[in-house]
Structures
1.
Amino acid sequence: MANSISVEQTSNSKPPLPPFTLETAKAKVQAAEDAWNTRDPERVALAYTEDSEWRNRTEFFSGRDAIREFLKRKWAKELDYRLKKELWCFMDHRIAVRFEYEWHDEAGCWSRAYGNENWEFAENGLMMRRFASINDLPIQESERKFRWERV
């Protein structure tokens, strides 16, 4: 992996920008949580560089188009998706988060996913790498923790 982080990778900026402080790292995590809870693949994809590299569970892909397609598939299957992210640690242009999200399938079976993400950012604040490790737990509807209204 290259350590070179270049603003030429994209033409726009997504504050807060690295290097991160505790305050700006928390803001970056909250912005990601808010965007993902919209379940809007177009909006979410704009937070990533055009050539962003992803690992999500066992899927490996890169680029905004692939991100959009992945998110469309994900949210077509994971209904009433609600996500909570928490800053785990940060340094310079990298952030690690832990997260939980809940969703149900077409049959009404609920699941909660637990995981960790490692993020690496370009100097313009767009994410150039996202590596996610995720485990699922079937739950009953009565066990749900995240019950706020849809955005």
2.
Amino acid sequence: MWKADVSRWRRCLKGVVGMTIIALIVSMILVGYEQPAFAACGDRPSYNAEVTNSGSTWTARNGSRTVYSGSDMVAAVQAAIDSLSSGRTSKEWVLVRGDGSMSANSRISLRSYTGIDVCGTIHVSGSGSGDNAPIYARGVRDIEVRYLNITGGPLYGIFMRNVENVVLGDIGIRVSSGLGVRIDNHGDRSVRSRNIHIDQVYVSGTGSHGVETYGVDGLTINRVTARNTGGSGLLLNDTINATVDRIDADGAGTGTGYAALRFANRNGRVGDSYPTNIRIGSVKAVGGGRGIFCVSESGGVEINQVDIQRTGGNAILIENCYNVNIARQSGTVDGGGEIRIAARDEFPPSRDITLQNLTVRNTDIRWSPCVGSNIANRNITRENSNLHWCSSAR
């Protein structure tokens, strides 16, 4: 009898385990499942150099060597970076533990093949000039910033110029001035910065943009969350081959012509044409300046979903852009300024523009002036919204 009871319990346990596994698999399929790339700051199996803080003393060590001890956090972190293997061709890692402060007129410079985890908050104070930033990189490759939190008043939170193979992980920039993240190629504009991956950036309080690229080829962003930025939440200039999963902006560019998401300066132009190469998953814009703004011969864009509410300026403004598809899947626009197709005289008029699958409430849709070609609206539901559309264009 005892053996029979054990056998029944085993069968019951197997059934429970099996059903649990099945339920887990089903839930993964239904809600989606992403294995996190990393779980917590400082969780790598090993680091080549480590920087720690005790009281007012910062200490940097590489193995058994102490490479810095003193009161200057920037000097400690820089010493740790510079202690890594000379001429390396694979990434070596630095761990920083503790909160610290630095001047807006100083920087921590990354070298090629360097990764860094900053497990603490860097507070920036004072005045500065130029392109100084808590994290700075120029003319380097294969760099990674997995964790970083910045407060205070930097010129830039992260500044990178003419870089290649960059990974930014979990980045928090809660500041009162400056620009959040800028990656460009303005040291040598004949060579683009390449292969930039950003996992997630939360940025608030900047005097300028949240995240900005200029002269980049190959950009992937999982998420940009922008709150009360002085300029755009995400601004792409002269950037090609970009994929952005989500932009979530509240109060981006209030009182300005900037937008939650802005394309400018021939963004998306490949050679002399505009193939679809800028792919945006979803855009949420609440308040602020404009919602979506495409300008100055940009294009090659498709945006799957939009949710735009109560913007101070145009909810959507397309001005001298080419091959732009808004709300390829679905979207809502509620209040705010008009949705408009516009034109400036100095550039050729827009062409190949599609607005579709939108529910528009409490604002109008306008194409003016009547210039451009192959400009369409379809499957638009309007509630307290007027359509001012050109019957023909020139």
3.
Amino acid sequence: MPRVTANIAAPPPLLVWEERRHIDRMLAEREELRQRIARLPLHCHRRIVLQARLEQLTLQLVAAEVALNARPLP
């Protein structure tokens, strides 16, 4: 029996450039946070705060990517 798969096509890149730019900015901010966290001592309060911010940013990033890929074509 053939397997049925969902054929979800991504929107053309020209229609989602603002969303992609926002995701790229979040990725850059996430990398910057990771580098700052790596330089701090393990149990430093600032490190814990930055780790919480990194987790929040990662959740926002995943949500934005899911929303971008779930958009229907016009």
